[in-house]
Amino acid sequence: MPDPLIIAIDGPAGAGKSTVAQKLAASLGLTYVDSGATYRAAALKVLEAGIDPNNEGAVAKLIGGTNLQVKSSNGEPRVLVDGTDVTSRLRTPEVTLAAALVSRLPEVRAKLIQIQRSFAQGRGVVMEGRDIGTVVFPRAQLKIFLKADVEERARRRLKQDSSEGRKATLETTAYEIGRRDQLDAERKISPLMAAADSIEIDSTHLQADQVVRHILELLKEKGWAEPA
To answer: Which of 91, 103, 165, 195 is the most interior residue, by most CB within 10 Å?
Structure first.
């Protein structure tokens, strides 16, 4: 039997990874996994425990005893921390920054990568994040690196924040995204970068459905799937 299909979608914040990955997974009947949600969930647990996100030993000990799960409810991904659904609490600016700090800690990152890999045991997945094609699944059958201009990414994030009831300005959002880009690129462990065998797609002027169609065509060319 062939190995389950694993599609890795990497890229910076606001490039459209989540929307594209969810739509693609639905089209192919695969499981969608947001790897960033595991870091955000870990960061939330750290913040609520009053621990410094830079304290590697304390953070690793806390996360080592934490049960992180990613499930689907009515087609929507849900993140559970020790059995509690925390999905709606994962995208505040505080959690976003803490997640970037926590993700720089080698011991913590190693624990979370093990959790991420477990989501693909015996099943096909579309997993999105920042090091899926380079570290989590270096042998993924298809690797996509999704990018977009910073201004466009800020507009997208601002629109998402507004729809979820959070208030922010375009300037502040662009700054936060730029800061996250810097942290991701500068970390020593698994820095944000395109895998050598990934296919880069610039989504600045594309709708999510257009990106999904392009990826489905790539899969068809490789004999893995027919376009929807």
So the answer is: 103
Cα–Cα–Cα angle for 162, 97, 153, nearest 5°?
45
Angle at which helices 17-28 and 208-221 pack, to 10 degrees? 50
Give pLDDT, residue 164: 65
**CA-based nearest residue to 20, from 191, 209, 228, 189:** 209
Secondary structure, 3-state, the chain:
CCCCCEEEEECCCCCCHHHHHHHHHHHHCCEEEEHHHHHHHHHHHHHHCCCCCCCHHHHHHHHHCCCEEEEEECCEEEEEECCEECHHHCCCHHHHHHHHHHCCCHHHHHHHHHHHHHCCCCCCEEEEECCHHHHHCCCCCEEEEEECCHHHHHHHHHHHHHHCCCCCCHHHHHHHHHHHHHHHHHCCCCCCCCCCCCEEEECCCCCHHHHHHHHHHHHHHCCCCCCC
Q: How many CB atoms lie within 10 A of CB 210?
A: 13
Single-letter code of the amino acid located at 69 = Q
For strands 6-10 and 125-129, give the pairing. Answer: parallel
Q: What is the pLDDT of residues 201-223, one digit of tens each?
A: 999 999 999 999 999 999 999 88
- Least Cα distance to 127 among 175, 77, 91, 161 occurs for 77
Residue ranges of domains in the chain, CATH in brackets: 6-219 (3.40.50.300)
